Amino acid sequence: MSTLLTGLKQHSIVVADTGDFAAMRKYQPRDATTNPSLLLKAATMPEYAAVVDRVVSEARQGAATPAAALSAAMDRLAVAFGLEILKIVPNRVSTEVDARLSFDTRASVEKALGLIALYEAAGIPRERVLIKLASTWEGIEAARHLRQYGIRCNLTLLFSFAQAVACAEAGVQLISPFVGRILDWYKKSTGVASYAPAEDPGVQSVTRIFTYYKKYGYATEVMGASFRNRDQILELAGCDLLTISPQLLEDLDSNTGTVPKRLDAGAASAATLERVVMDERTFRWMHNEDAMATEKLSEGIRLFAVDAIKLEKFLLTRLAS
């Protein structure tokens, strides 16, 4: 009997949610994704000191001011880890735009273009990179603009159906609904200690989005993210992609069993989901009406910003030494 991880890979593309190269080599995902929290953790690990040293040296060169050197170091570090990841995974890496730009479409576009330029200077075509943006209205509009440059985006911190519909209509390449964080909110707000896998609010949210996309023929890929346990993952077998932490990859790889396909694009046509016509006013109202999504999006942006600031402080120390 095969492992659960092997069975899962028959139905969904498995993505490594980590900055740890060793974990990627072990579990052989097709894609990988990072965020400021993962970059911060990786940058402070001794085994990646040489990567950080190189980035700091490059950032110092040609920087007119300390602020410019720091900005260059942040971008170069994200791309440096992305380049290392692309030596391991055969397909794509997601590289995130600073969360502090989440409400600035123009600045997000400019930052994305700069990151892509660094990748292309290193010989990586833009088809192998997904730019990660927070799923604010401004982030979704940035993704719409970036399509004009052939740049594909991964819209992260996605919690509401409104966000998902807006992303699909903007032609976003991929979305990352946060299963575990949705569950966290419901457990806290309702006092319910646990949910059966099929009744898990995070699982239900991704299932609804996946079904809606397939029913109406949207090309946007759905990548379940932020898992808290193995059951959440297995309940979404069949989702386009699933991004999984090393701990849960180990769990799946250490256990055997059959993995039935839970999400089926072919069955979506029979679903009774009414099509939504999305514009900015509809988006803001629908998202506002979802208390969980409103709170978790704001919280997620703040937390990613905190880690970005910590990473800046770490790099400032290195730049000054």
Structural commentary:
The chain is α/β, with parallel strands linked by helices and 321 residues long. The chain has one domain: Aldolase class I (TIM Barrel, Alpha-Beta Barrel). It has 14 helices and eight strands. The chain has an eight-stranded parallel beta barrel, surrounded by eight helices. Strand 7, helix 11 and strand 8 form a beta-alpha-beta unit. Helix 5 crosses helix 14 and helix 8 packs antiparallel against helix 13. The chain starts with a helix and ends with a helix.
Quick structural summary:
The protein contains 14 helices and eight strands. The longest helix has 30 residues, at 291-320.
How are the SSEs ordered, and which strands pair?
Blueprint: H1 4-9, E1 13-17, H2 21-27, E2 31-33, H3 36-43, H4 49-60, H5 66-86, E3 93-96, H6 105-121, E4 129-134, H7 137-146, E5 152-158, H8 161-169, E6 174-177, H9 179-190, H10 201-215, E7 221-224, H11 230-235, E8 241-244, H12 246-254, H13 280-288, H14 291-320
